[in-house]
Amino acid sequence: xxxxxxxxxxxxxxxxxxxxxxxxxxxxxxxxxxxxxxxxxxxxxxxxxxxxxxxxxxxxxxxxxxxxxxxxxxxxxxxxxxxxxxxxxxxxxxxxxxxxxxxxxxxxxxxxxxxxxxxxxxxxxxxxxxxxxxxxxxxxxxxxxxxxxxxxxxxxxxxxxxxxxxxxxxxxxxxxxxxxxxxxxxxxxxxxxxxxxxxxxxxxxxxxxxxxxxxxxxxxxxxxxxxxxxxxxxxxxxxxxxxxxxxxxxxxxxxxxxxxxxxxxxxxxxxxxxxxxxxxxxxxxxxxxxxxxxx
Length: 295
What we know:
By secondary structure, this protein is α+β, with helices and mostly antiparallel strands. The chain has helices at residues 16-25, 27-34, 86-94, 128-144, 171-188, 256-262, 281-294; strands at residues 7-9, 14-15, 39-43, 53-55, 68-72, 77-81, 97-102, 115-122, 150-153, 159-164, 193-194, 206-209, 219-220, 236-237. The N and C termini lie far apart (64 Å).
Protein backbone atom coordinates (compact mmCIF):
# COMPACT_ATOMS: atom_id res chain seq x y z
CA UNK A 1 0.00 0.00 0.00
CA UNK A 2 1.06 3.54 -0.69
CA UNK A 3 0.03 6.10 1.93
CA UNK A 4 -1.07 3.33 4.36
CA UNK A 5 -1.80 5.91 7.07
CA UNK A 6 -4.25 7.87 4.93
CA UNK A 7 -7.52 8.13 6.86
CA UNK A 8 -10.47 6.75 4.89
CA UNK A 9 -13.11 6.91 7.65
CA UNK A 10 -12.36 9.96 9.84
CA UNK A 11 -14.99 9.24 12.50
CA UNK A 12 -13.25 5.95 13.35
CA UNK A 13 -9.77 7.08 12.26
CA UNK A 14 -9.76 4.04 9.97
CA UNK A 15 -6.76 4.12 7.67
CA UNK A 16 -5.94 2.41 4.40
CA UNK A 17 -3.89 -0.12 6.36
CA UNK A 18 -6.82 -0.76 8.71
CA UNK A 19 -9.19 -1.41 5.79
CA UNK A 20 -6.72 -3.79 4.15
CA UNK A 21 -6.37 -5.70 7.43
CA UNK A 22 -10.16 -5.78 7.79
CA UNK A 23 -10.57 -7.39 4.38
CA UNK A 24 -7.74 -9.80 5.15
CA UNK A 25 -9.59 -10.88 8.31
CA UNK A 26 -12.87 -11.53 6.45
CA UNK A 27 -11.48 -12.73 3.11
CA UNK A 28 -12.96 -16.22 3.48
CA UNK A 29 -16.40 -14.65 3.98
CA UNK A 30 -16.42 -12.04 1.23
CA UNK A 31 -14.52 -13.68 -1.62
CA UNK A 32 -17.17 -16.34 -2.42
CA UNK A 33 -19.60 -13.46 -3.04
CA UNK A 34 -17.19 -11.73 -5.42
CA UNK A 35 -15.50 -14.52 -7.36
CA UNK A 36 -16.14 -14.54 -11.11
CA UNK A 37 -18.58 -11.61 -10.99
CA UNK A 38 -18.19 -8.33 -12.87
CA UNK A 39 -18.11 -5.43 -10.43
CA UNK A 40 -18.94 -1.75 -10.18
CA UNK A 41 -17.10 0.23 -7.54
CA UNK A 42 -17.34 3.35 -5.40
CA UNK A 43 -13.98 5.12 -5.18
CA UNK A 44 -13.08 7.59 -2.45
CA UNK A 45 -9.35 8.17 -3.05
CA UNK A 46 -9.06 10.71 -0.22
CA UNK A 47 -11.52 8.99 2.10
CA UNK A 48 -15.24 9.11 2.74
CA UNK A 49 -15.17 12.76 3.83
CA UNK A 50 -13.93 13.88 0.41
CA UNK A 51 -15.18 13.29 -3.13
CA UNK A 52 -16.47 9.79 -3.93
CA UNK A 53 -17.57 8.59 -7.34
CA UNK A 54 -19.13 5.53 -8.95
CA UNK A 55 -16.71 3.63 -11.17
CA UNK A 56 -18.36 1.18 -13.55
CA UNK A 57 -15.66 0.60 -16.14
CA UNK A 58 -11.98 -0.03 -15.61
CA UNK A 59 -9.64 2.75 -16.68
CA UNK A 60 -5.96 3.52 -16.49
CA UNK A 61 -6.47 4.08 -12.76
CA UNK A 62 -6.47 0.31 -12.14
CA UNK A 63 -3.24 -1.72 -12.35
CA UNK A 64 -2.95 -4.40 -15.02
CA UNK A 65 -2.53 -7.05 -12.31
CA UNK A 66 -6.26 -6.89 -11.52
CA UNK A 67 -8.42 -9.28 -13.53
CA UNK A 68 -10.59 -7.72 -16.21
CA UNK A 69 -13.47 -8.95 -18.32
CA UNK A 70 -14.78 -7.35 -21.49
CA UNK A 71 -18.57 -7.17 -21.82
CA UNK A 72 -20.50 -6.06 -24.85
CA UNK A 73 -22.92 -3.21 -24.13
CA UNK A 74 -25.43 -1.39 -26.32
CA UNK A 75 -22.97 0.87 -28.11
CA UNK A 76 -19.53 -0.34 -27.05
CA UNK A 77 -17.52 -2.97 -25.20
CA UNK A 78 -17.01 -2.17 -21.51
CA UNK A 79 -14.22 -3.51 -19.35
CA UNK A 80 -14.98 -4.54 -15.76
CA UNK A 81 -12.91 -5.66 -12.80
CA UNK A 82 -13.37 -9.11 -11.27
CA UNK A 83 -12.17 -9.64 -7.69
CA UNK A 84 -11.03 -13.23 -7.17
CA UNK A 85 -8.38 -13.09 -4.46
CA UNK A 86 -7.13 -11.36 -1.33
CA UNK A 87 -4.40 -9.52 -3.29
CA UNK A 88 -7.15 -8.20 -5.57
CA UNK A 89 -9.12 -7.01 -2.53
CA UNK A 90 -6.06 -5.25 -1.17
CA UNK A 91 -5.57 -3.80 -4.64
CA UNK A 92 -9.02 -2.23 -4.37
CA UNK A 93 -8.10 -0.71 -1.01
CA UNK A 94 -4.99 0.76 -2.61
CA UNK A 95 -7.28 2.45 -5.15
CA UNK A 96 -9.52 3.89 -2.44
CA UNK A 97 -12.45 1.58 -3.20
CA UNK A 98 -14.97 1.73 -0.34
CA UNK A 99 -17.86 -0.15 -1.98
CA UNK A 100 -17.94 -3.27 -4.15
CA UNK A 101 -21.10 -3.96 -6.16
CA UNK A 102 -21.58 -7.12 -8.22
CA UNK A 103 -23.59 -8.35 -11.18
CA UNK A 104 -26.30 -11.00 -10.79
CA UNK A 105 -24.39 -13.35 -13.08
CA UNK A 106 -21.01 -15.03 -13.26
CA UNK A 107 -18.58 -14.32 -16.07
CA UNK A 108 -18.91 -17.98 -17.06
CA UNK A 109 -22.68 -17.61 -17.57
CA UNK A 110 -22.85 -13.89 -18.24
CA UNK A 111 -26.26 -13.88 -19.93
CA UNK A 112 -27.83 -16.28 -17.41
CA UNK A 113 -28.23 -14.67 -13.98
CA UNK A 114 -27.90 -16.94 -10.95
CA UNK A 115 -29.86 -14.79 -8.51
CA UNK A 116 -32.69 -12.29 -8.18
CA UNK A 117 -32.36 -9.40 -5.72
CA UNK A 118 -35.18 -7.44 -4.10
CA UNK A 119 -33.89 -4.19 -2.60
CA UNK A 120 -36.21 -2.85 0.11
CA UNK A 121 -35.55 0.87 0.34
CA UNK A 122 -37.59 2.71 3.00
CA UNK A 123 -38.84 6.20 2.23
CA UNK A 124 -38.91 9.05 4.75
CA UNK A 125 -40.89 8.24 7.87
CA UNK A 126 -40.74 4.44 7.56
CA UNK A 127 -39.71 2.76 10.85
CA UNK A 128 -37.23 -0.12 10.76
CA UNK A 129 -39.83 -2.64 11.96
CA UNK A 130 -41.77 -2.00 8.74
CA UNK A 131 -38.67 -2.79 6.70
CA UNK A 132 -38.18 -6.13 8.44
CA UNK A 133 -41.88 -6.90 7.97
CA UNK A 134 -41.52 -6.10 4.28
CA UNK A 135 -38.59 -8.49 3.92
CA UNK A 136 -40.59 -11.26 5.60
CA UNK A 137 -43.53 -10.54 3.30
CA UNK A 138 -41.31 -10.92 0.22
CA UNK A 139 -40.00 -14.16 1.70
CA UNK A 140 -43.54 -15.47 2.20
CA UNK A 141 -44.44 -14.65 -1.41
CA UNK A 142 -41.35 -16.50 -2.58
CA UNK A 143 -42.04 -19.51 -0.36
CA UNK A 144 -45.52 -19.71 -1.90
CA UNK A 145 -43.67 -20.26 -5.18
CA UNK A 146 -41.40 -22.83 -3.51
CA UNK A 147 -38.43 -20.48 -3.66
CA UNK A 148 -35.96 -20.13 -0.80
CA UNK A 149 -34.50 -16.69 -0.14
CA UNK A 150 -31.82 -15.12 2.02
CA UNK A 151 -31.64 -11.72 3.69
CA UNK A 152 -28.83 -9.25 4.31
CA UNK A 153 -28.43 -5.70 5.49
CA UNK A 154 -27.35 -3.22 2.85
CA UNK A 155 -25.21 -1.14 5.17
CA UNK A 156 -27.41 1.78 4.14
CA UNK A 157 -31.11 2.09 4.99
CA UNK A 158 -32.68 -1.16 3.85
CA UNK A 159 -32.50 -4.88 3.30
CA UNK A 160 -31.80 -7.16 0.36
CA UNK A 161 -33.80 -10.34 -0.16
CA UNK A 162 -31.74 -12.60 -2.43
CA UNK A 163 -33.05 -15.60 -4.36
CA UNK A 164 -30.30 -17.98 -5.56
CA UNK A 165 -30.95 -19.66 -8.91
CA UNK A 166 -29.47 -22.20 -11.22
CA UNK A 167 -28.02 -20.16 -14.09
CA UNK A 168 -30.84 -20.45 -16.59
CA UNK A 169 -33.26 -17.54 -16.88
CA UNK A 170 -32.47 -14.70 -19.23
CA UNK A 171 -31.98 -11.19 -17.91
CA UNK A 172 -35.42 -10.26 -19.18
CA UNK A 173 -37.03 -13.23 -17.43
CA UNK A 174 -35.32 -12.49 -14.11
CA UNK A 175 -36.22 -8.81 -14.24
CA UNK A 176 -39.79 -9.57 -15.29
CA UNK A 177 -40.24 -11.97 -12.38
CA UNK A 178 -38.91 -9.42 -9.89
CA UNK A 179 -41.05 -6.64 -11.35
CA UNK A 180 -44.26 -8.65 -11.24
CA UNK A 181 -43.71 -9.78 -7.66
CA UNK A 182 -42.89 -6.23 -6.54
CA UNK A 183 -45.94 -4.85 -8.35
CA UNK A 184 -48.12 -7.54 -6.80
CA UNK A 185 -47.06 -6.56 -3.28
CA UNK A 186 -47.50 -2.83 -4.00
CA UNK A 187 -50.91 -3.42 -5.57
CA UNK A 188 -52.20 -5.31 -2.53
CA UNK A 189 -50.83 -2.78 -0.02
CA UNK A 190 -50.44 0.56 -1.82
CA UNK A 191 -50.17 2.44 1.46
CA UNK A 192 -47.16 0.40 2.52
CA UNK A 193 -45.25 -0.29 -0.67
CA UNK A 194 -44.39 1.22 -4.02
CA UNK A 195 -42.72 -0.44 -7.00
CA UNK A 196 -41.67 2.61 -9.01
CA UNK A 197 -38.79 4.98 -8.44
CA UNK A 198 -40.58 8.35 -8.19
CA UNK A 199 -39.42 9.82 -4.88
CA UNK A 200 -42.57 11.90 -4.64
CA UNK A 201 -44.56 8.68 -4.13
CA UNK A 202 -42.27 7.15 -1.50
CA UNK A 203 -43.10 9.16 1.63
CA UNK A 204 -43.99 6.66 4.35
CA UNK A 205 -43.61 3.71 1.97
CA UNK A 206 -41.07 1.03 1.13
CA UNK A 207 -39.77 1.05 -2.42
CA UNK A 208 -39.34 -2.53 -3.64
CA UNK A 209 -36.53 -1.96 -6.11
CA UNK A 210 -36.63 -4.74 -8.70
CA UNK A 211 -34.36 -2.87 -11.13
CA UNK A 212 -31.32 -4.54 -9.57
CA UNK A 213 -32.14 -7.42 -11.91
CA UNK A 214 -31.68 -5.87 -15.34
CA UNK A 215 -28.53 -6.59 -17.33
CA UNK A 216 -25.66 -4.44 -16.15
CA UNK A 217 -27.28 -3.50 -12.84
CA UNK A 218 -25.48 -4.32 -9.61
CA UNK A 219 -26.12 -4.56 -5.88
CA UNK A 220 -23.69 -4.07 -3.03
CA UNK A 221 -21.83 -7.30 -2.30
CA UNK A 222 -22.23 -9.17 0.96
CA UNK A 223 -19.50 -8.09 3.39
CA UNK A 224 -18.57 -5.01 1.36
CA UNK A 225 -17.99 -1.80 3.26
CA UNK A 226 -20.07 1.26 2.41
CA UNK A 227 -18.88 4.79 1.70
CA UNK A 228 -20.71 6.21 4.71
CA UNK A 229 -19.33 8.03 7.78
CA UNK A 230 -19.76 5.21 10.32
CA UNK A 231 -18.05 2.59 8.08
CA UNK A 232 -21.02 0.20 7.89
CA UNK A 233 -20.88 -3.17 6.13
CA UNK A 234 -23.51 -5.12 4.18
CA UNK A 235 -24.02 -8.27 6.26
CA UNK A 236 -25.88 -11.56 5.63
CA UNK A 237 -28.28 -12.52 8.41
CA UNK A 238 -30.33 -15.55 9.35
CA UNK A 239 -34.04 -14.83 8.96
CA UNK A 240 -34.47 -15.29 12.71
CA UNK A 241 -32.03 -12.44 13.34
CA UNK A 242 -34.27 -9.78 11.80
CA UNK A 243 -35.18 -7.55 14.71
CA UNK A 244 -35.50 -3.91 15.82
CA UNK A 245 -31.99 -4.20 17.28
CA UNK A 246 -30.15 -4.96 14.03
CA UNK A 247 -30.68 -2.07 11.65
CA UNK A 248 -29.21 -1.89 8.18
CA UNK A 249 -26.06 -0.08 9.30
CA UNK A 250 -25.71 -2.04 12.56
CA UNK A 251 -22.48 -3.82 11.66
CA UNK A 252 -19.33 -1.85 10.93
CA UNK A 253 -15.68 -2.45 10.17
CA UNK A 254 -15.10 -2.41 13.93
CA UNK A 255 -17.88 -4.78 14.99
CA UNK A 256 -18.20 -7.29 12.13
CA UNK A 257 -15.07 -9.34 12.96
CA UNK A 258 -16.49 -9.98 16.44
CA UNK A 259 -19.77 -11.18 14.94
CA UNK A 260 -18.04 -13.53 12.54
CA UNK A 261 -15.76 -14.92 15.25
CA UNK A 262 -18.81 -15.72 17.38
CA UNK A 263 -20.87 -17.46 14.69
CA UNK A 264 -21.29 -21.21 15.02
CA UNK A 265 -22.58 -21.54 11.46
CA UNK A 266 -22.71 -19.33 8.40
CA UNK A 267 -26.24 -17.82 8.28
CA UNK A 268 -26.08 -18.21 4.49
CA UNK A 269 -24.55 -21.71 4.48
CA UNK A 270 -27.41 -23.12 2.40
CA UNK A 271 -27.17 -20.29 -0.12
CA UNK A 272 -24.32 -22.02 -1.90
CA UNK A 273 -26.21 -25.28 -2.42
CA UNK A 274 -29.65 -23.80 -3.12
CA UNK A 275 -30.21 -23.83 -6.86
CA UNK A 276 -33.73 -23.10 -8.05
CA UNK A 277 -35.63 -22.41 -11.23
CA UNK A 278 -37.83 -19.37 -11.62
CA UNK A 279 -41.52 -20.25 -11.80
CA UNK A 280 -43.98 -18.16 -13.71
CA UNK A 281 -45.17 -15.32 -11.48
CA UNK A 282 -48.69 -16.02 -12.72
CA UNK A 283 -48.55 -19.17 -10.58
CA UNK A 284 -48.42 -16.99 -7.48
CA UNK A 285 -51.33 -14.84 -8.64
CA UNK A 286 -53.35 -17.97 -9.36
CA UNK A 287 -52.66 -19.45 -5.92
CA UNK A 288 -53.58 -16.20 -4.19
CA UNK A 289 -56.80 -15.91 -6.18
CA UNK A 290 -57.82 -19.44 -5.21
CA UNK A 291 -57.00 -18.78 -1.56
CA UNK A 292 -59.00 -15.54 -1.61
CA UNK A 293 -61.97 -17.35 -3.12
CA UNK A 294 -61.98 -19.86 -0.27
CA UNK A 295 -62.11 -17.17 2.41
